[in-house]
Amino acid sequence: MKLRTLAAVAAVFAALAGCKSQYEILLSSNDVDAKYKAAMDYFNNRKYLKSAQLFESMSILTDGTERDDTVRYYWALSNYRYKDYYTAESNFGKFISKYPQSPFTEDARFLQLDCQYRATYRWELDQVPTRNCLASIMEYVREYPADGAHLEACQEMIRDLSDRLDRKAFENARLYYKMEDYLAARVALRNVLKDNAENAYREDILYYTAMASYQYARLSVPARQKERYLTFVDDYLNFVGEYSESAYRRELDAMYRRSQRALGKYDGIDEELEMKAKDFERERKALEKGSKNN
Known about the structure:
This protein is an all-alpha fold. It has helices at 2-18, 22-27, 32-44, 48-62, 68-81, 85-98, 105-118, 128-143, 151-178, 182-195, 202-218, 222-242, 249-262, 277-293. Helix 11 (202-218) packs antiparallel against helix 12.
């Protein structure tokens, strides 16, 4: 009885072995030519998981041969096309280290950067990966010619990553304004521009700087208000000097006239002086919406 059972089990395993697909047979084969042809066929037919597995299994057999750089490059490229960006980045890195002079190296460098770029986070989250990726892209752009095949894509990534860093810096500083710590807000906002005068959110930063100084003056004890309103006047003039047509202008103009009245330099009647922040915000959003539609 036991012998018959063992025989039956053996027959099942033999049948299963006989049912192996051609792909499975190739995967365990040592026939490099057959594996290479099949891997390329799978790749060209967009079956990237299978091509990646075949190129990976082949890499041991081709190590040290003329075909090895092609195998390792297409292994990483298959990972990339399969959208396994984590594995692709690692494999492109290994390829670049092993074959720095390969004809595939420039493309491998760019695709590794693209994998790194895809692993960065939106502006609200940790921006360490953003800074690292930006540094890597800048290094790539310096190393390869200005008319390189991937220059436009690199420039677009640089713009996006730089914008995230600018937004993060601006929003971190603006947080003090939202918390109504106006002195800290003004200091933090000015420091953002001190660190990077070309911040993409410069208009917003200058607006909130002026608003922070105005609110700080307004809430100060009477003995300190004059000097603090004068600080606001400086911030206001800085803003209008750069952004005379800004959607923020009408609101800041009203704040300016209020400060002048507090300083005893304005005694006119102006309905804008009675408008509240929400009114200005509503008006500003309508103007911004209209400019976008145009």
